[in-house]
Design a protein that fits this description.
Radius of gyration: 20 Å
Shape: globular
Oligomer: single chain
Strand content: 25-35%
Helix content: 10-25%
Mean pLDDT: 97
């Protein structure tokens, strides 16, 4: 039996989100019904609701930073019980059979993972995200939120946390490594916290020094303004890893000059426009220009456990559901420190 729940949806591209109702599927044998308590607002929600990344599915219920409590489980569920604190990130299923899925890299499923929203489920129906009261998710794609993290601060970890944790781990951020984080926003502030907790020497590269005090409090050792041309001269050849969290096109040649030999510049922010590159910027110094998505389910759980062990959560501003459209505009104006989280009790 399906369940009707309240939600906030964009009825069309670039249209304001409005309150509506959606149908959640019946809880299957291996499904978990989650009573959503909090849902983070990610910049990618805005990209997709406004078709900045291409054609999308409407009506759209965004939200892939979901934290809540298990309300019911299917008869075959073994990992979760009613009352457990759980989360859902950017994907809700994959083929589970390809080489990447078998390696725990479901985010890179060779057949394409099923996105939490703006996707098509295995039942052929559109997926709807976390700006809603409840969601039904396969047990295999449900995460356990440790008791050491408040649910509202945990919600953004399901995207912002894993999106920065995965490349930091893959490129071996840790003691003896110099890591720069480009941008101190929803993604960037978690990148700073995590890189610091991993033991790296952390530098923030931001357009201005406006958030310098915040950056240092979050764990950065250094903070530079990229609007100052002297920054690129002073820091040339400095970093082992640069993690770019911004959604605006950058002068990649300038940023690549900041890497050491064999250093890596990794994009987790996704601009809507193409970017230019002089290939000699990577040829000289055997440098790597790379990208990284989220993490697999196993790594996402590892990230949550790591955050609990180190007392890490997102820096958040909790809002009511009727403030979502205002929050979108504030995200675009960089007027949030550092992640909006919807109290879904207000939907």
């Amino acid at each position: 039996m399906t369940t009707t729940v309240a939600a906030y949806a964009a009825p069309a591209a670039k249209a304001p989100l409005e309150r509506t109702t959606i149908e959640r599927r019946e809880v299957g044998e291996h499904d978990v019904l989650i009573d959503i308590k909090y849902a983070g607002i990610c910049h990618s929600d805005i990209h997709q609701a406004r078709e900045g990344w291409g054609e999308a599915i409407f009506p759209m219920v965004p939200g892939h930073e979901i934290a809540g409590v298990v309300e019911a489980v299917g008869s075959g569920v073994t990992k979760f019980a009613v009352g457990d604190r759980v989360g859902v990130g950017c994907m809700v299923d994959s083929c589970r059979e390809c080489e990447n899925c078998e390696a725990g890299l479901e985010q890179y499923c060779l057949k394409g993972n099923i996105q939490t929203y703006n996707g098509i489920g295995k039942d052929g129906e559109p997926t709807y995200g976390g700006y809603s009261q409840k969601v039904v998710v396969a047990e295999a794609f449900t995460l356990r939120i440790p008791d050491g993290i408040a649910l509202d601060e945990a919600a953004p970890l399901l995207c912002a946390g894993i999106t920065t944790y995965s490349p930091l781990r893959h490129w071996n951020a840790g003691p003896g490594k110099k890591v720069a984080v480009v941008g101190l926003g929803g993604l960037g502030h978690m990148g700073v916290k995590l890189a610091h907790a991993l033991g790296a020497e952390v530098t923030v590269l931001s357009q201005s020094l406006r958030k310098k005090d915040d950056g240092l409090k979050l764990g950065a050792d250094h903070y530079y303004a990229t609007s100052d041309e002297a920054t690129f001269k002073e820091l040339a050849g400095t970093f082992d890893l640069i993690l770019s969290t911004v959604s605006a096109p950058l002068n990649l040649d300038a940023y690549l000059s900041l890497l050491k030999t064999d250093g890596a510049f990794v994009n987790v922010g996704a601009p809507e426009e193409p970017v230019a590159l002089n290939l000699f910027s990577v040829i000289a110094g055997r440098k790597t220009l790379a990208g990284s998505g989220i993490g697999g389910i196993r790594e996402t759980q590892e990230m949550l456990d790591f955050c609990a062990a180190h007392g890490l959560g997102a820096e958040i501003e909790v809002i009511r559901a009727d403030q979502i459209n205002e929050a979108y505009e504030r995200v675009l104006a960089s007027d949030v420190r550092y992640r909006f989280v919807i109290d879904t009790a207000t939907i």
